[in-house]
Every structure is written in structure tokens, then in C-alpha cells.
Amino acid sequence: MMRLDFEAFDQDLEGGWRILGSTPGCEAETADLIHKFRTMKVDGQRLSLMHHEMQLRGAAGQYGAAADLARDVLGFALSPEMQAYHEAELAFFARDYDGLLAARSRLAALPAPEGFKKGVEHFLANYPDQPPPVWPVNLDVVEGLIACFEKPYSEAYSFACRPDPQAETAAP
Fold it and tell me: Is the whole model's pTM more than 0.85, yes or no?
């Protein structure tokens, strides 16, 4: 059922959640399914769209609207790394340099999740020509926002403002 689109999941009387919900003894499981669909699929899609709208408003120079959307994004249950990343974006749009530095510190201090190192090793074994995943995610983006804080978001977000990943691996 998680593969269904919203309309089919919610409105299809013969193939959506209602068929399971009308089965005696399946009420709790159906409630769990609805919760999972709502939070993982619908909210996840809404969060993604809000985040991308926020970034585009920032790129258009609409920092007030971007900051408002960033506050809305922060209202979702986020993983600690995404919480810190979105706090950094909000600080950039709100023109709060100290807040941006604080969010960067929180993000950088997060321990890698269990199994991350093993996952990187697996990735490198399968994709030796690709840059490996790094922890914490989006730290390079936040560092770019700091490095180019006085520049427009579209430039601060660009790779030109981010640290050079080759410089980090090439250092003795």
C-alpha cells in the first residue's frame, strides 16, 4: 500500500486503506498503516517540496519568505543532522551569522551513525570512481554558506563557495 499515490491510498474503496480498515481486528494495524503513509510519504513529499521552494525563494533573493519556509521545515520531525542543516539555512536567510556558526558547530559535532564507516567501505568497493559519502551530510553546504555569507544565496550555495574535497584528502 505504500506504493499507492495519495488518491488511491485514501479514496479507493476496494484497494486503499479502507479495505484493511473494514476487516474486523485490523483497526490498529490500519491506523499504524495510515500513520506510516501520512508521515513517511505525504509529509516526506511535503517536506521535500517546502525545502525546494525555500531554496528557490532564497535564490530569488526572497530571504524573508525563505526564512518563513525554513521555520516551517523545522516543524517536521527531523533527524539531528537535518535539523542542524535546516537551522543553518534559516540562519543564512535570517542574516544571523552567529546562528549559522552555531548550527555548523552542532552539525559538525554529530557522531556518524552506526554502520556508516562500513557503508562507505561498501560504497567504495562498488563505486571506486565515485566520491564516497561523507559525514556529516551537508556540512560542506553549511561551510559554503559561512564562507560566502555576504553573497547571494545562489552563490553561497554553489560549489564555488564550498571547501574543496580534494584539498582535504590531499593534505599530508
Answer: no
